[in-house]
């Protein structure tokens, strides 16, 4: 076997990675989304557990403590829809959960809103399918207050579309 070598990448940085040992971790999962808030908290939303069941929970961990412990975020009387294979963007204390696969295995075009500061789920944005088709497995980012989405698929039909939602996020 030939060792893996690259000229454009310093392989020594791999040795800088370490595992963060935590208390009370959430269920193992994949196809979730995550984001950092206030350079302090790591939030993890939705996804599928080891049995492939969709999740609607939200967990966070303070990365700046000596003995980090996961906590389940209580969102009051309104919960996140069960979702996986979604994308998300954070803008002005609101995390927008975009599309994904719902609990009935259908692609979704809902945009759920999680108010990070208040720990509440707000009314979702449900755009017309002609402007934003149901998607899962896509990526999303922000350009100003417009959401840019790339790729993904709808019920296993893959695409290479770039979708732009101009002014999708309206600051109050």
Describe this structure in words.
The chain is an all-beta fold and 172 residues long. 0% of the residues lie in helices and 41% in strands. It has no helices and 16 strands. Strands 7, 8, 9, 10 and 11 form a 5-stranded antiparallel β-sheet that branches. Strand 12 (139-143) and strand 13 (146-150) form a beta hairpin. It is globular, with a radius of gyration of 18 Å. It starts with 28 loop residues before the first strand and ends in a 7-residue tail after the last strand. 25% of the residues are buried. The model has no long low-confidence stretch (mean pLDDT 90).
- Number of alpha- plus pi-helical segments: 0
Please state the average pLDDT score. Answer: 90
Order of helices and strands: EEEEEEEEEEEEEEEE
What structural class do you assign from the helix and strand content? mainly beta
Which percent band covers the strand fraction? 35-45%
Q: Indicate the radius of gyration in whole angstroms.
A: 18 Å
| Beta-strand segment tally | 16
Shape: globular
> What is the share of helical residues?
under 10%
Low-confidence runs: none
What distance lies between the first and last C-alpha atoms, to the nearest angstrom? 59 Å
